Amino acid sequence: xxxxxxxxxxxFEKAAGPGPSFSVYDVIKALGIIAEAGSIGRGKLSExxxxxxxxxxxxxxxxxxxxxxxxxxxGCSLTNKGKKIWRRIEEIIPHLSEIGQNELTFASYNxxxxxxxxxxxxxxxxxxxxxxxxxxxxxxxTLIYRSKKLMLPSITDDAEKSFPxxxxxxxxxxxxxxxxxxxxxxxxxxxxxxxxxxxxxxTLI
Length: 205
What we know:
Number of helices: 9
Low-confidence stretches: none
Order of helices and strands: HHHHEEHEEHEEHHEH
Largest sheet: 5 strands, antiparallel
Mean pLDDT: 94
Number of domains: 2
Structural class: alpha+beta
Strand order of the largest sheet: 3-4-7-5-6
Shape: elongated
CATH superfamily of the largest domain: GAD-like domain
């Protein structure tokens, strides 16, 4: 089963009923927060994810049922299976962070995500933009790193010359290799920018 199938399966309840009020992107972010913290309480995790008590309870229950986390009085922690899944996610998405304002940003909050070796899946970046918008962002800009140059499909073959500030910010944050992708998602809130960036990245996985 692919990493995409494993994570998306957490969204579906075996019995009939309403769907969860969280997304696969919340699952990815939750695993990352737990991995970074080692152990974290439910309340703190809910606060960092920006989702409510009911949603966090359902999310944690499904992560436990999938064997990805353990819960105890001290908090939630990854199981060996959870650590393995998180390592696979990190291999594909090694970086996600806020990025400063630059020539390509157009909202109050901007998040950049690094997707490893998926440049061949990008056409004009429209699929990534649309996915980001569906996840709550205002839009997304997709760049591909090829032949030691960062390019913006249909716009420029050399972002270093066309968008020097954006180029400097991205290359300082990421160790880009040939065929890697960098996506900037822009939104009115940090959560929407993060969810938009992950949604855009998800189209390439």
